[in-house]
Amino acid sequence: MGTLRAIAAATAWLGAAASSTVQGQAFDVPPVQWPAVAERAMSVQGFVPDGWRLEHHVEGRLDDDARPDLLILLRMQDPANIVEHDGLGMSPFDTNPRMLVIALADPDGGYRRALVDRALIPRPESPVMDDVLQDDPAHAIRIADNRAFSVALHSWASAGSWFTSRRSFTFRWQDGCFRLIGLDTFELHRGSGATAEASINYLTGRAWTRTGSIEDDDGDRQPHRLAKRSMICLEDVGDGLSFQSGLTVED
C-alpha cells in the first residue's frame, strides 16, 4: 500500500503529476493579445471576438430564473500560434488558446456577459500532450439539471510521463459567483497499472479517496474531510490541471 499511497498523494488529490508539463518537451509559445468580449449580445455569435471561433456552446439554466443561459467555449484562430518544430510530438502544433464565457439571459431578450475565464482550460504548450478536452468539447463541457455545469480535463503524454489523469470540475452560481462545488479526479500510472481516485464536495467539506489498479478497482472508498472549507470561485481556480484541491491524505 505504500506505493499506492505515494502515487495517490502525488497525483489524485495534490495534482502534481497531472499539472506538470512533460520535461524537455515544452517550448516557447507565441504571446497572445486577449480580446475584449462583448458585455451584451442578442445571440451566442455576438460573444465571439474577431479572430476567434465558436468551438462549442451549451444552453441551459445557470441562474435562478427559468430562462436558458449560455456556456460558451471560444478558440483563437491565429495562424501565428501554429508552431512547426523538429522535436517529439505533432508538428505543426496548434497552441491557440481557449476562453470560457458565461452569458446569462436578460428578461428583455438577449444575454449579458457574466464571466470570461482564460485559465481553467490550459493552453496547449507541449506537442506530446493530448488535447485537454480530448478533441470533444461536447463531452467535456456540460450543464446539469440542477443549474450546475462541469468542465472535464484530460492529461496524457506520448513521451516523458507515465501518468494519465482526468479531472472534472463542477460549478454552480451561488453566493455571488460561479462557485466550485465538486471535483472528481482519476489518475493512472501506465507502467505499474496503479490507480488513484478522489471525489470532493466543497459544500459539505466531505471527500473520499480510493487506490487500486487497472486489474483490481474494487478497493474500499476511504472517507475524508477537508482540513479547511472556503469558498472557491471559478476565477480562483486558475489552470485546472495545476489546481491544488485542498484535500490532504496522510498514511
Written account of the structure:
A hairpin with a 2-residue loop joins strand 10 (163-174) and strand 11. The chain is mainly β and 251 residues long. A 7-stranded antiparallel β-sheet has the order 8-9-10-11-12-13-14. It has helices at 2-10, 16-19, 137-140, 234-237, and strands at 40-41, 52-60, 69-76, 82-83, 93-94, 98-105, 111-117, 141-143, 148-156, 163-174, 177-189, 194-201, 206-213, 222-225. The protein contains 4 helices and 14 strands. 33% of the residues are buried.
Short description:
This protein has helices spanning 2-10, 16-19, 137-140, 234-237; strands spanning 40-41, 52-60, 69-76, 82-83, 93-94, 98-105, 111-117, 141-143, 148-156, 163-174, 177-189, 194-201, 206-213, 222-225. It is mainly β. The longest helix is centred in the first third of the chain and has 9 residues, at 2-10.
